[in-house]
Structure formats: structure tokens, C-alpha cells
Amino acid sequence: MTKILFVINPISGDIDKEDLMEDLKAFGRQHDLTVDIFKTTGEEDEKKLKEMLASYKPEIACAVGGDGTVSLTAKSIINSEVALAIIPMGSGNGLSKDLGIPQNIDEALQLLVDHQKMAIDTLDVNGHLSIHICDMGFNALVVKRFCGGETRGPGAYAWIAMQEFMAYEPKKYTIKTDGKTIFDGEAFMITVTNARAFGSNAAINPTGVINDGEFEICILEPFPKSSSLGILYRLYTDTIDDSVYTHRFSCSSASIINHAEEVSQIDGEPEDLGKTISFRAQPQNLHVLLPPQAV
Ligand SMILES: Nc1ncnc2c1ncn2[C@@H]1O[C@H](COP(=O)(O)OP(=O)(O)OP(=O)(O)O)[C@@H](O)[C@H]1O
């Protein structure tokens, strides 16, 4: 009998999950799965989850929540044979969308019994794990305000982004890889990722491959406000490389000097990364469950 631990965030995406817990147990009974539940509290979740994983020893750890819950679950099983499954119930659900995991709950649940397992790359960022997107600048500021706010859900995120956009001042960054300086100047935001798109589906790294041993650094340089709609259009049509304000570089390690110590975020959570940030690809060290037909 396959053993599954559901890691449930009761507040993610502003969605009530009381009934869902009964549904998950019923799904387990129906499919002959051994099921247990770990409910996050927002306090020492990583430590408590690791303890539960060590004693329960599941084959699958299934995150039920948003990107923060997925990240918490991934941190707890990284470099092990335990596979990550995702029932997307957050505001953005970035990694699950990039992996082609159904956003419909029943279909995502079905992957627990009908799936393929794949090892994906992750990123080490100054000793922190990133499984989806790390960035500095505008988006990280929005993430920080969102996480500190009372309201969740995609609407709240978009509202904060609109409020912050008009007054945002680009900051200075220096980026080095393979001993060479590849960028030294101001940027609206710098995104470092293996993946293709944010949870909003904005494709910042349209040709990103999640298991090729490399990651991309995507630079969005300062742009006139009158160009913002054009950049948004490019983000949603996989044509961001055509913008004169963007550059992308592929590498397996890099360092970024964040001169102003501008706010940073990893996988949807604000993170204080200091002035010098080192990035290193960690090839195929996280197992994930994907739809059977995915490549
Ligand atoms: N029981 C809880 N009460 C309050 N906060 C919690 C609780 N459990 C987890 N959290 C907090 O929830 C945040 C993670 O939320 P998560 O990312 O899963 O959902 P989201 O923010 O709504 O969606 P997304 O990340 O996709 O935008 C973390 O900051 C974590 O500390």
C-alpha cells in the first residue's frame, strides 16, 4: 500500500479546506492508500514536518496549498526518494502550473494513483532551496507586501502590484558567472529560475527546461511607464526575449551583488539574502509526480 502524507496549509489561497480533509481520507480508502495529514501552522512547520516524515516514512509527500506549502514540502524531502505531489490551492500555484499539474483538485488528486515520476533540478541560493523562482526587485517587493497583508488570493496580489508599480525605483545589481561580469547596472527586477513562468502565467523564461542542469538569469532593465503594457503583452505571449528591456543568460552557477540590498523572494516567500547572493544548480535532486502523458 502506497503511503502518502498530505501537507495541508489551512489558509492558502483563502480557501477553506475542512471538507477537503475528509475527501482526501475517502480518496485514500477508495484507492487502497495509507494516508495521514500534516496541517501547517505557520510556526516551525519545517522542523515538525521533517520529524513526521522521519517517523511516518511515506513514498509520497503531497503539498495541498500554494507555492509556500510546496516549497516547505520540497525542503523536507530534497535529496531523498520521497516524491512530491501537488494539489494546487494557493494564490499563484507557480510550480504546479510549470509542471503541467492539473489545477482542478480532483484531477490533481488522480495523479496520486496515475502518474509518472521525474527528477527535476533545484537551485541553491545562499544555502536556501529554490524549486521555482527566486527574484530581486519589483516582484519580490509585491510578494513581501502580499505575505505581510491580511488578504490572500490572486486578486490581492494584482492589487498590490498595481499600487507599488508607479512609485517603484529600479536598483543596481552586478551579475557574474564563469568569472565574467555579464551585467552591471540598474534593473526593475532580476529573476533566477529553472522554470518557465510565474504563477500568474507570465512567462519570464519561456524556454526554461526544468531538468537540464542549468538555470536562467532574466534581467528586466528599467523601462518607461509607457512600455509597461507592451512588456506585459510579451510576458503573456512567450515573446519576452523580443523586448529591448530584457536579457536572459543560462548558467549552472552565478553570483549577484544586490548593491541596495533590495528585497528578494524565493518561491513566494520574502527572504533576506544579504548583499552577495550565490546561485548553484542542483541537478535532478527533487522527485515530482507528473501527469502520465507529460514528457
Ligand atoms: N495555519 C496557518 N496560519 C497562518 N499562516 C500559515 C498557516 N500555515 C501556513 N501559513 C503560512 O502560509 C504561507 C504559505 O502560503 P502558501 O504559499 O501555501 O499559499 P498562498 O500564499 O495563498 O499561495 P501562493 O504561494 O501560491 O501565492 C507561509 O507564509 C506560512 O507560514
Automatic annotation (TrEMBL):
<keyword id="KW-0067">ATP-binding</keyword>
<dbReference type="Pfam" id="PF19279">
    <property type="entry name" value="YegS_C"/>
</dbReference>
<dbReference type="GO" id="GO:0005886">
    <property type="term" value="C:plasma membrane"/>
</dbReference>
<dbReference type="InterPro" id="IPR050187">
    <property type="entry name" value="Lipid_Phosphate_FormReg"/>
</dbReference>
<dbReference type="GO" id="GO:0005524">
    <property type="term" value="F:ATP binding"/>
</dbReference>
<dbReference type="GO" id="GO:0016301">
    <property type="term" value="F:kinase activity"/>
</dbReference>
<keyword id="KW-0808">Transferase</keyword>
<dbReference type="Pfam" id="PF00781">
    <property type="entry name" value="DAGK_cat"/>
</dbReference>
<dbReference type="InterPro" id="IPR017438">
    <property type="entry name" value="ATP-NAD_kinase_N"/>
</dbReference>
<keyword id="KW-0418">Kinase</keyword>
<feature type="domain" description="DAGKc">
    <location>
        <begin position="1"/>
        <end position="129"/>
    </location>
</feature>
<dbReference type="InterPro" id="IPR045540">
    <property type="entry name" value="YegS/DAGK_C"/>
</dbReference>
<keyword id="KW-0547">Nucleotide-binding</keyword>
<protein>
    <recommendedName>
        <fullName>DAGKc domain-containing protein</fullName>
    </recommendedName>
</protein>
<dbReference type="InterPro" id="IPR016064">
    <property type="entry name" value="NAD/diacylglycerol_kinase_sf"/>
</dbReference>
<dbReference type="InterPro" id="IPR001206">
    <property type="entry name" value="Diacylglycerol_kinase_cat_dom"/>
</dbReference>
